[in-house]
């Protein structure tokens, strides 16, 4: 595991964030959401700061981070790509779309491109079944995506 060194200003911001939630253990999920917005992901050092501030074991923080799929312990790309793998999307070819993103970007699900531009994840359902298969890039929704459209979609982000 790569050791990161969190800048003192980030540590100070995390401490202040925890204080805004009263350093209350019951606010852990809210604190983690805000911390992930602040840092971009939740590496071990961030979890340690939060655990110390909320006076709870790091193992409890880690347990919450790893339980909820929204949280990530690895940095996301500048343009996070999520391919819906829910039933409607899967039946309409989402797996082939996901495979094409992996081929073009030369990364697997859960990874980020070397330049930090794209990261790739899959989701269970985005609730847009009528547009299946669906791809999210950041907040932008792409519907009825085919493998042949993947390179064209990625060019929008060059």
From TrEMBL:
The keyword Transcription does not apply. It comes from Butyricimonas hominis. Its EC number is 1.6.5.11. This is NADH-quinone oxidoreductase subunit NuoE. InterPro entries: NADP_DH_HndA-like, NuoE-like, NuoE_dom, NuoE_N, Thioredoxin-like_sf. One of its GO terms (molecular function) is oxidoreductase activity. Keywords: 2Fe-2S, Iron, Iron-sulfur, Metal-binding, Oxidoreductase. It comes from the Bacteria. It holds the Pfam family 2Fe-2S_thioredx.
